[in-house]
């Protein structure tokens, strides 16, 4: 059960490696323009453009002007501006992010992103520790410590954190001036806050994750489950089974004093507690009010909040930007007949929404795992996916490495991810730069990537359910 | 009786019509002169330094506002009058251009180049007298009306992605101006014919008879322009100009056969246009031909000792001109350009104006102080940069005024379609190859960033820099957008055209002053030359190659994507729905009665057959046999 020795040195090395890369790479090394790394939503370059124009106007501070100040103001900048930009102007995060006038040139933004990576990893590690403790506790209650000893007990928290820090994709994204590490940080913060039952933190993370990219909105289900039921546990049925066996034994053996174990199992069956959920709701409203207040301040004289929503969430939901990314939707909506566009927009988003309820019903005893599944699904079906989303769920899946030990196709998936991350830039280069390939080559890697993610999600859900069944069976077998 | 009555009224009506038309014919001249409906036709011919000839046709119709004229016009085209009335047009300029004006050889600072050098394709701008909220709809309706009137696709300017609202480029600081350009519009005779229909004599009489389609479309540059100005005071003024640059056929000159290579080609109207000019349009108030000799030719003539003469050792102007009009220059030590005027009035004898060069002679046209050009940088189809460069032409005129305080102003106006996503924060300005601080160079800026599928990006910029500067360069980075397959033009792999940028020099004017001759005042063309026009130049149209999706793939993409989605949704639901325990129990219970598939089918068939009458199996057998036979035969 001991953690990985030298975790902190490894983590520090990861951060040092990033900073080293940031300093050593030449300035014209355009990692940020790769579609695998940045999307229209997370590209610093695309965000900087309007920010640079309206920065002075918005903040009114005495920062160095990026445009001559005596110039006539830009009357139409924000109204005629690309979606993500307005959103960025208002986010307090972006305020610190853009504290340098043109971050792209400065290292400040990159350093901030490295720090975000580090905090994310630390939070993942803390979540992992909590999950591990709860698992150990529950298995002890079920008298299954034997299982722990036979299957071995990996410190999944350390693993997941290092997986996040040393994943080559994360490193590339960190130095590719993409803002997605901050989105990831917010998501992880929400999950950690819910795991450790700190409603303010969970609400903060959730509200800002939703604010930065719409899709984490579905995480409200696992967060509420986490706050209500507590951490992941074997299904309550196995506890009930255990309980009934214990009672039966006790009545058969006529032993009077054994109520200790049964009460313990009773305690292990989590009952939904409303108080943290209500706290969470309260804090969500507080943070929402805060975000909207900040937005309205920064949008003063530029536009209205509804316009902001239309240009941020509308931009995400209607897939307006058809530039290639590793998803499927860009090519689909570039090719599909206009007549069917709205229909397919609904179909794709409904595909995310329709599985929320079945998953929540089947996995309600494992809210943390549920959160992982939701993140994986949304990163597969989101309109502008990038590898940054996959780094998050790949590190989250390692949190459950003990439960998912007998998952199938893991080697295949590993090879598949490597193949896609190698082929995708090659095909992109062939198509865009050399002109020898065409869009179908790149789309094919996108298809392969979507299939891989499907397999990952389906297999992990299947093996998690199988694991729960195994637990129940062992409980049954013991008696 | 009724039929007779009807015939009578019909006859009566005819009579009235005839009498009306006669009276209009009789009094037409009088009305045209006095009431202010005027039509003039003029042609300016000018030899160009690179062995070409510029021909500039100028037709002007005016309709003075008068309460009793109402909707009826004698000379003025009714279509245009209705257009002006319907859309409340204050100013309008529409040009169809093929080819690019060569600013280096054909001049950059004279009135012709600053008013008639136009970007390739169609350019349209208009100001309206309507409230601000109605301007966009008025503009859209106007584009449709014009595209019908001129048989062209001006209606593409209707969508909000193709027009813009410049704020200070056109000098008018107004919000009711709209500007749009279609760089890829091909211009041909179908645009010229409706344009000619607006002339009272069409191309049946007068100067317009010279417009022989093969010879004018063979030229190097062809720009047909329509300029409308409408005010309450002066009524509607319609200027129709056609500017063409032609290469005259080289007429072999036996006396100078050795020098034929170096000598300028001699030309005449009949040799260039393959038509003879006989008589003017009777409805035209004036009909004249002007031949202009640039000041560099005149200075040479003065050197040779015969300034202002039309027949000398250098060149011969073939019919003797009616009058010589001289330009007045603010700098008296310099020579000025000369205009030779011919009045086109003879009915039967063709007026064949021409120049015969006798000696080889090289001169240069007056340049604008800076030559503007625009080009693309970068490779690949993902991103690139637009660069606009202004190169000093070192024209002596501006070197003379060179001093330390001299400051040059240049206004850059550029409209970029939304799919070229320009990052305006990457604007860099280099002066003499040195990167400048933006606030030192930019005096005024207005940026309208593009909005996907809604607005084009517009950049208006006033640069101020010392006159002694050799080169100014602006760069802007952009990303290339990706479009829906239906948004690509027919030949998508060719690329997209970005309309010409416009560079104006607001403190330089191309106006000419002519010696106060009363008759010259009556020439609308010369009046036009005397107007104070800003020197401007259009840059090249940029061709941006774009990435294209596979146009043949829509069905494949839809099926593939939907398959992957179905795979995900189906397998996930299957995993969630599955009850392994239940399945195992079912399997266990079935194990007892397990039977193979084939025995099951056999048993089913036999059980069915057993219940049938004797003839049925035979019938089925026959049907199966016949089907088999059919397949084998086929």
UniProtKB/TrEMBL annotation, chain A:
Pathway: Glycolipid biosynthesis; glycosylphosphatidylinositol-anchor biosynthesis. GO terms for cellular component: GPI-anchor transamidase complex. It is found in: Endoplasmic reticulum membrane. One of its GO terms (biological process) is attachment of GPI anchor to protein. The chain crosses the membrane at residues 6-25, 206-231, 272-293, 313-333, 339-361, 368-387, 407-427, 439-458. Its main location: endoplasmic reticulum. It is a multi-pass membrane protein. Keywords: Endoplasmic reticulum, GPI-anchor biosynthesis, Membrane, Transmembrane, Transmembrane helix. It comes from the Eukaryota. Pfam families: PIG-U (PF06728). PANTHER family: GPI TRANSAMIDASE COMPONENT PIG-U (PTHR13121), PHOSPHATIDYLINOSITOL GLYCAN ANCHOR BIOSYNTHESIS CLASS U PROTEIN (PTHR13121:SF0). Belongs to the PIGU family. This is Phosphatidylinositol glycan anchor biosynthesis class U protein. It comes from Zingiber officinale.
TrEMBL record, chain B:
The chain crosses the membrane at residues 555-576, 617-633. GO terms for cellular component: GPI-anchor transamidase complex. Residues 1-28 form the signal peptide. InterPro entries: PIG-T. One of its GO terms (biological process) is attachment of GPI anchor to protein. Keywords: Membrane, Signal, Transmembrane, Transmembrane helix. The keyword Disulfide bond does not apply. This is GPI transamidase component PIG-T.
